[in-house]
Each structure stands twice: as C-alpha cells, then as structure tokens.
Amino acid sequence: MVMVAWTAAAAVTGLWLLLLLALAAATRNPDVEAGPATANLAPQSPAVVDLITGGWRLCDEAVSATLLDLAARGVVGVEEIGPELSLVRMRRDPGGLRPYERLVYDHVRSLAVDGVVATGALAEGSRDLGRWWKSFRRKVITEAREQGLSRPRWSRAHATLLTAVAALPAAVIGVAANISDKDHEAGVGAAVVSFAGLLALMGRLNGERGTAEGARAAAHWLGVRAHLGTTGRFAEQPAASVTIWGRHLAYAAALGLAPRAVTSLPVGTPADDSRAWSDYGGMWHVVNVRYPSRLLWGRPPGSAVVRGLVAGWFTGFPTWVLLVAASAFGVWPDGLVVPAALAVGLAVAGPPILFALSDLTGPVTVEGQVVRLRRFRDGGKGGDNAKWTYWCAIDEGRAREVGAMCLSGEMWEPLREGDRVRAVAGRRTGWIRRIEVIEGSRLRNAASYDDTGEHLMDAPENLGEVRILPDPHADGPTDPDRTRPYRHRRRE
User: Measured on CA atoms in the order 408, 413, 418, 423, is the torsion positive or negative?
Assistant: First the structure.
C-alpha cells in the first residue's frame, strides 16, 4: 500500500512537471535576429533598449546609460577635470522626466555639493540599494509594457492553472506520507511543504518575456549596435565624451559597447568598503579606509587590559613549564626560571595594557566626516546569537588614508555616512568612547525617493531568479549590516 501511494505521488508530480515544462516552452522569449546595421535611433530610451536587447533582463549598464542620456539632453553635465577626477554638474531643473530617470536624477542631486558631485562618489549615499535597484528596474519594465515590448511570462491564467493543478500532487504526497507514518501525523506537513516547493519551482521559471513588437524593436537596436560597434571606438570613450557623442554614447552604454563610461558612473553599484569619496574640506577626494586587525585594535580599554592579562598568562605559564623542564636537565639555571617566565608574560601583556591605560588617561578628540559605517559578523554565530563588530571611519581632512575605529552598537546605529561628527577616542586602541553629530548628513533622506508605485507591480527580475510566493521583503532586499553588496547581471 505504501509503495502504491508513493508511486501515485511520483506519477502525479511528474504530470505536473510536464505541464510546467510545456507552458515554459510555449512562453519562452521570441527569437531575435539582428537587423541591418543602421544609425537610426528609435524612440525607446537607453534603459528600455538595455532590457529588450539583454534577453528581457535589465543589466547594470542601464543606470549608467540613463545618466549619460540625461547628460546628452543637457539635464546634467559630465566634465573631466583630470585623469583621476570627473564631475557631474547639475545644470537645470528638468521637467517631464520618466520615473526611472527621476530616480537617477534625484540620487545625483542628493549627493551634489553646490550642484557638483564627483563621478566616483555616485556609489555613495544612504540608499537601500536593493530597493532602489528594484524600483528602477520595475519602472523600466512598466514603460516597456506600456509600449507593448514586454509582458510577464506567466499570465494570470497560467499562474492560476499551475497553482490549482499543483494542489493535486501535493495532496497525493500528503496521503502517501500519512500512510507511511505510523502515527499518521505527517500528511498535512508533507502536503504543505510539497505544495510550496512546486510553487517555488514555478516561480524559478518565471520572468519577463518579449512580445512580437518587442522582438522587432530588439532586432532594430541590435542593428544599431552593429553600426556603433564599427564607429566611434566607444569602448575607450570616457563619460565626459558625451558632450561630443551625445545620445549615441548613452545607447552604446546600454548596448554594452562603452564599458569605460559605464564603470566611471557607478550609480547602481554598492559603495566600496575600503574606498570612499568625501567632500570634507570643500573638495571631492578619495579616502582609503583600513580595517586594522582586532588583535589589539578596536576594543574598549577594559577589554584590552583583560585580553592583555590573559595573553600574558597563556604565554608566561607555558614558558615557566618549559623552563622548569629545562632546569631539570641542567640546561637553564634554576634561579632564572621564574624571572624569565615573568618577563615573557609581561612582554606579551604589557603593550595592550599600556595602550589601554594611555587611552584612558589621554583620549583625543577626532572631528570630521563619517565616510564609512560598517558592521561585520564577529565569529561564526548567526541568527539571534550573532555578534557584530561596528566600524566607523572618520575623514579629518588631513590624510588620504583613514583607519576605521570601533564603537558600540548603540552609538553606531543612529549614525549615517556623511555626518559631521566629534568623537572622543583612543588612538592606540581604536575605540570610540563618545561621539556626537555636529551636522547631519545631507544623505539622510536620500532613500526617501519618490516611488510612484511600480514596486507593487508583479515584475520578476529575470528567468531563474524570481519567486511566485510572497516576498517577505516586499520593498526590496534590505541589507541590515550595510555591507553586503547587491549584485545584478552585467551584460556579457
């Protein structure tokens, strides 16, 4: 009986999988063949072009291409000041921007100081980059759907059919599990788990797919790509060359032909932990951030003293044991056993204790701009038992390399990158005892962008990476420790 039940469950599940594969084959993206090479630019924006020519998956070039398009249209300017510094200058208040163009424009404006921001600093800001990117992507998809170029892979009829039919194998699996369990209590759990698994598999095969009109538009733009690929040497052009090439450079970026310009405009890229841009002192500059080893660094003075004593004990005691053995064989004088062991222990325990006492009696005041706030998991524990190390790097405007210092989670939490702060800290132990915000960061409200509601739209990211089941993070993948990079696909 048990064998029959599981055989029936396997058969019904197999039939559901065949239905899923049949619908997947029927709803695949249309084949696109490149049209004849042409210089004619169709009315689609660079971001929409990126979507339809990338297999209906939005690539990370789309954000940079959008900013280049804004520059080509005179909304902003891109100026190359030197080999290591280029600037984006806000030129005029634009009207009638598309929602995703407004998203990019507002981010650049939030970073600008007196209307100017370094191109390398475009990755800065206190955005939830996951939600920001999701909102950008869905706004682009909304426009593509409005133009008849794109649609969801699963229609409501497809999703309803697959969901309803999935209940059958789930029920049969539940019956089989119930028969197999001598207590007859496993059926409901097995049915729920199998039903959720089938829906998750359905979600993994979901995605945005092109229409016939979208395929025709993509063919045209692949023809434009062929033309641009033979002219202009766009791969070598910096972002500032948009003043010469205009919108052609923006479309070249969207089509994967201008990697140098795209890399120099990291709007959709997470900020580098170890390389920050600061405007402290009035001029944009790079600050290299170090995270020193925590052997003696980044600990409260009391903890440093205790660690020093423990380290002294665990080196001094084994040394005493070895010297006692050596003296027994006449290799080491008996009278020098204890003094030598004490000397070794004090040599190890002395530096951290002296550093801690020095910082307790003579702390320094550090004043500057917070350029990096990070927290890293301390050890291997996760979940509710996770322990974190909290780091804060402050640019004082005197050096291009800054050593991040540690502080408590209570002090770290209310801080934001860009805050002007005054901190009382120990230079030798790297521990911040007190910190106050002198001037709040202008980036504190950068995440409060105007979201026009596209984040509520059912727009799966791409084939093989989406879910039908409700997303527990409906507003986008939030990064609680502000360290995890949010990555999306780069065009090959």
Answer: negative
8 A C-beta contact, residue 289 and residue 274: yes
- For residue 44, give every residue at least 6 positions away whose Cβ sits within 8 Å of its Cβ, in sequence order, or none: 52, 147, 149, 217, 221
Q: What is the spatial distance between Cα 57 and Cα 54, in angstroms, rounded to a whole number?
A: 5
Residues 408 and 388: their CA atoms lie apart, in Å, by 9
**Rounded Cα–Cα distance for residues 465 and 209 (Å):** 14
How much is the pLDDT for 492?
39
Instruction: Spell out the domain ranges in the chain.
Output: 1-30+154-205, 46-153+208-271, 287-297+360-444, 301-348
Fold type of domain 287-297+360-444:
OB fold (Dihydrolipoamide Acetyltransferase, E2P) (2.40.50)
pLDDT digits (tens, 9 = 90+) for 21-74: 898 888 888 888 889 999 999 999 999 999 999 988 898 899 999 999 999 999
Q: Which residues contact 313 (CB under 8 A, 6 or more apart)?
A: 345, 349
The pTM assigned to this predicted structure is 0.76
The residues with which 425 forms a beta bridge, in sequence order, are 364, 432
173-199 confidence digits (pLDDT tens): 888 888 887 777 778 888 899 999 999
Strands (E), 215-316: 275-278, 285-290
d(CA 124, CA 132): 13
Structure tokens at 215: 């395929």
- The amino acid that residue 483 corresponds to is T
Give the other-Cβ count within 10 Å of 186's Cβ: 17
φ/ψ (deg, to 5) at 417: -60, 135
Q: How do strand 116-118 and strand 85-90 relate by DSSP bridges?
A: antiparallel
Are the C-beta atoms of 18 and 195 separated by less than 8 Å?
no
**pLDDT tier for residue 452 given thresholds of 50, 70 and 90:** low
Q: What is the dihedral of CA 233, 239, 241, 242, to 10 degrees?
A: 100
Task: Assess contact for 337 and 323: CB atoms under 8 A.
Answer: yes
Residue 423 identity (one-letter amino acid): A
Q: Which residues of 43-67 are buried (b: 16+ CB within 10 A; e: fewer)?
A: ebbbbbbbbbbbbbbbbbbbbbbbb
**Close Cβ partners of 77 (under 8 Å, ≥ 6 residues apart):** 71, 88, 89, 91, 243
Question: Got the DSSP string for 403-439?
Answer: E-EEE-HHHHTT--TT-EEEEEEETTTTEEEEEEEEE
